[in-house]
Amino acid sequence: MQIPVVRNVLEANEKLADQVRARLDAGKILALNLISSPGAGKTTLLERTLADLSGEFRMAVIEGDLQTDNDARRVAATGAQAVQINTEGGCHLNSSMILQALDNLSLDGLDILFIENVGNLVCPVEFDCGEDAKIALLSVAEGDDKPEKYPLLFNLARAMLLNKMDLLPHVDFDVRRARDFATRLNRELAIFEVSCRNGQGLEGWYDWLRAMRQAKLEGRLPRPER
Fold this sequence. Notes:
This protein is α/β, with parallel strands linked by helices and 226 residues long. Helix content is 40%, strand content 18%.
C-alpha cells in the first residue's frame, strides 16, 4: 500500500520531471538514467563511452553520489561536461536535483545527457528524473537473480548491460538465467553483454545509443513509463 505522504512526494517529483523533460526535449537532447548496484561499473562504462564516441556526439554527465566527487572527476577527464550532485546520504537522485544541475551545464548543441544515479537498485527506479530511458547495469560479479529480486528496474528499463564479462570464467554467474529473468519481465528489453576492460560488446551498445539519438531527433521516442 502506498501511503499518502509517499504518493505526494512522487507526484511532486513527476511535475518537476516534466519540466526537466521539456527543457531537454526543446534541445532534442537524449537523456539516459543509469541505474545499478554500487560497483557494477557505471562510471567505467561512461568513461569508455565518452572517450569512444567523443567524435560523434557532444555528451555530458550528471553524477550522483553520497559524498565524493571522485566519479565526476573521472568523467571530466574524458573532456565531457560533468556536474556532481552529492545527496549527503540520500539513496537516489530526484528531478529537483536534475533541474538544478541543468543550470550548470551548457545545453546548446548537446546530444546526449547521461545521469549516473546513486548505486541502488530500489529507490532510484521510483523517481523519474526526466530521462528518456532508464538503463539497468548488472555486473557478472553480482547474482544472476538480480532481475528476479529487483523486478521494477528491469521492467521499466529500455536496455540492460551485463558488464564485466571478462570476469565470467572466474565467477558463479549464469548469463542465460539473468537474461531469462529480465526478458520475462520486459520482452522489449535490449541486452548487451559487455566488458569495458577489453571492449567486448561495446559496439552493440554504441549502435543502440546511435539509434536512440536518431529516434530522439525524429521525435519517435515514446514517453517512458512511470
